[in-house]
Fold:
Amino acid sequence: MSGANAKNILGIETSCDETAAAVVEDGRHLRSNIVASQFHLHAQHGGVVPEVAARHHLEVILPVVDAALDEAGCGWSDLAGVAVTAGPGLAGALLVGVNTAKALAWAHGVPLLAVNHLEAHLYANWIEVPGRDYCEPELPALGLIVSGGHTDLVLMHGHGVYRRLGRTRDDAAGEAFDKVGRLLGLGFPGGPAVERAARDAAATPPRLPRAWLRGSDDFSFSGLKTAVLHAIRDEASSPLAVPELAASFQASVVDVLSRKAVDAAAREGARSLLLSGGVAANGALRAALEERSPVPVFAPPPVLCTDNGAMIAACAYYRFDALRAGWDLDPQPAMQFC
Ligand code: KG4
Ligand code: ZN
Structure:
């Protein structure tokens, strides 16, 4: 039961292909979490079609918000804020969330908060997980944000205080999973499909290259994707099985991500490591970080790794004053947070 002074925030997320809304109390207690995924609409195209995404957000956003409030047992008067993803993301998709949040917040006299989607991914690690002892990440923390559009390594000194260490120079980790999933005929989204296929591989699948980019915290995955393509073509006469290729690709991505994150955490004196973004749902990546990290690893449950409204609400709670927005808020498709 929530106390009289509890601060409930409604979080709305429409930056890509999930229409999501959630209510989070005091930045950590999840009262509801509704995610309407569109992947079935985009699967036939092998990727997200921006116009289709925006149109579908528009169709389902109000029912999704209603369901989040219902499940939380919340009325508008119980809300301390309406938080929405302002960027980065697809312009038309963001516009639906931003305009919906503005209209609802204005109509109900509730403060509006503009949230950066990537910063919010980190805050999924502040949400309580049923059955797990609650433990707040110690700062400074090393954040590894691995999603469909981004691969960022950041040092978080405090709420809203970040330093970027590195990013991908070409494909994002999730994008590489999606492209390799397509090359292997595994469908969209590729991440979960590649992970499933890899489980059936022989014990020691062939080794694919790793782009270490020594001396830098940046990443690169496009060469690896090309190596998978060559492996498929070269083996045309006696093809390597899909599970072996999936496992080799995944091992290479996981090796680079985990070693570079762990090295940066040690070098920068981080006290915890925060894994976040859709690729954080990957079991092999989680296991490698757990095994290698010198500091405690935080990884949200898979449902809070991929896009959701709860992380938007949690981020808005910790950054409430800084993220207050006016009624002239516009989506910012290329928004940066550090
Ligand atoms: O964070 P997210 O839901 O959306 C963006 O902000 O981009 O991340 C989606 C990405 C997709 O590329 C998807 O293939 C990847 O996360 N993903 C995974 C897994 N689950 C989702 N990648 C690897 N293993 C997974 N289990
Ligand atoms: Zn995301």
